Amino acid sequence: MGQLLLVLASILTLSSLNTRTMTIAGTTPDLPEMRLVQKLNCNNPQAQAAINECTKLFYQNADKKLNRVYQQLLSTLESSRKQKLIAAQVVWIKFRDTNCEFERSRYEGGSIAATIYFGCLENSTKLRTQQLQEYLKANP
User: How many CA atoms lie within 13 A of 100 on its CB side?
Assistant: First the structure.
């Protein structure tokens, strides 16, 4: 009898709380994605997750630079050459992504796979940026 009263008291206490929803066992509430609050130090990352995140940031920065150079080059070209560059860039992106997926596949399932993938994307993107910069210099 005492346990029944305890259960009823618990139910009454819970029902009197001002909550919008109750979570049923086996379901997950809609919560915002949780992220570490600790500042990311890409000069000296200490854990694989930090290395992966830094490598991704390095790639994203390289990609931004590539896009700036690409847009600069496009603005200097006449229509027929512009179309050829656009077609070449589309094919190059597909090649880069597929090639980097191949490199990552050797480490599939491992914690380093993301570092391999984003490192490959960064290196390939930097090379392409240099190539586009050379085109830009040759096309006054």
Answer: 20
What residue ranges define each of the domains in the chain, with the CATH number in brackets? Answer: 38-138 (1.20.1270.180)
In the three-class reduction of DSSP (H, G, I as helix; E, B as strand; rest coil), residue 121 is classed as helix
Give the DSSP H or E segment for 67: helix 48-76
Kindly report, residue by residue over 21-71, the tens digit of the pLDDT: 333 333 344 444 445 546 788 888 889 999 999 999 999 999 999 999 999
Q: What is the pTM of this model?
A: 0.70
CA atoms within a 13 Å half-sphere pointing along the CA-CB vector of 24: 1
Helix, strand, coil content of the chain in percent (nearest 5): 70, 0, 30
DSSP H helices in 77-112 = 79-105
Cα–Cα distance for residue pair 101/99, rounded to 1 Å:
5
Dist CA 111 CA 126 (whole Å):
24
d(C-alpha 110, C-alpha 98), whole Å: 19
